[in-house]
Amino acid sequence: MLSSLHQAQGALRDLTRIVHDFPSEGIVFEDLTPVLADPEAYRAIVRVLAEFARSQNIDLIGGLDARGFLLGSAVAYELGVGVLAIRKGGKLPPPVHTISYDLEYGSAQLEIPSSGIDLRGKRVLLVDDVLATGGTLHASRELLEQAGAQVAGLAVVLEVDGLHGRERLSDVPLFVLNTHEVSSGDT
């Protein structure tokens, strides 16, 4: 795993695109699209996330809308488990479980189907690209727990240090591939 870890961290350093003032003024957005488009980097990231997932004895991957879908489905495939898309509000037909939450730059809703999938007792690993304030991961966890699932762990590619997202999620195993420190001008 060590070579995959170093390869993934190097790709993050070299390929991440930094976009200032997106999605709103004062936000520094770290776009992982170029990293995920690189086949070797993508494979290395998936291998590292899958290794963590194996240690959590999971039944299902929960991929957060939208880059969490790309990562989560590849990790689920690697492990031979199912994947659940945790969607932004209004994207799924009813009936749905819904939760509202605050973001660092607004508010949002997340949804999962409330019929057709029995989540009771399932151990789920949540996968996303970036942990900033922790709002989306925290809301996803609450949403899955309302549906009867147990969140066994969280895995993200990048953590924006200094926004205290980790603190909101401290009682569940968290894997972070790489940490970026907030500098002056970042939020």
Give a verbal description of the structure.
The radius of gyration is 16 Å and the shape is globular. Helix 5 links the parallel strand 7 and strand 8. The chain is of the alpha/beta class and 187 residues long. The strands form two sheets. It has a seven-stranded mixed beta sheet with strand order 5-6-4-3-7-8-9, with helices on both faces.
Helix content: 25-40%
- The N- and C-terminal alpha carbons lie at a distance of 32 Å
Order of helices and strands: HEEHHEHEEEEHEHE
- Structural category: alpha/beta
> Number of DSSP strands?
9
Strand content: 25-35%
Question: What oligomeric assembly is this protein in?
Answer: single chain
Q: Quote the average pLDDT.
A: 92
Radius of gyration, CA atoms, in whole angstroms: 16 Å
Unreliable runs? 183-187
- The neighbouring-strand order within the major sheet is 5-6-4-3-7-8-9
Gross geometry: globular
Largest sheet: 7 strands, mixed
Q: Give the count of helical stretches.
A: 6
Which key phrases capture this entry?
187 residues, 7-stranded mixed β-sheet, two-stranded antiparallel sheet, 9 strands, disordered C terminus, Ade_phspho_trans, PRTase-like, cytoplasm, transferase
Q: What's the helix and strand layout?
A:
Layout: H1 2-15, E1 17-20, E2 28-31, H2 33-37, H3 39-54, E3 60-64, H4 67-79, E4 82-88, E5 96-103, E6 106-113, E7 123-131, H5 135-146, E8 150-161, H6 165-168, E9 174-181
Parallel strand pairs: 3-4, 3-7, 7-8, 8-9
Antiparallel strand pairs: 1-2, 4-6, 5-6
Helix pairs in contact: 1-3, 3-4
Protein name: Adenine phosphoribosyltransferase
Catalytic activity: AMP + diphosphate = 5-phospho-alpha-D-ribose 1-diphosphate + adenine
EC number: 2.4.2.7
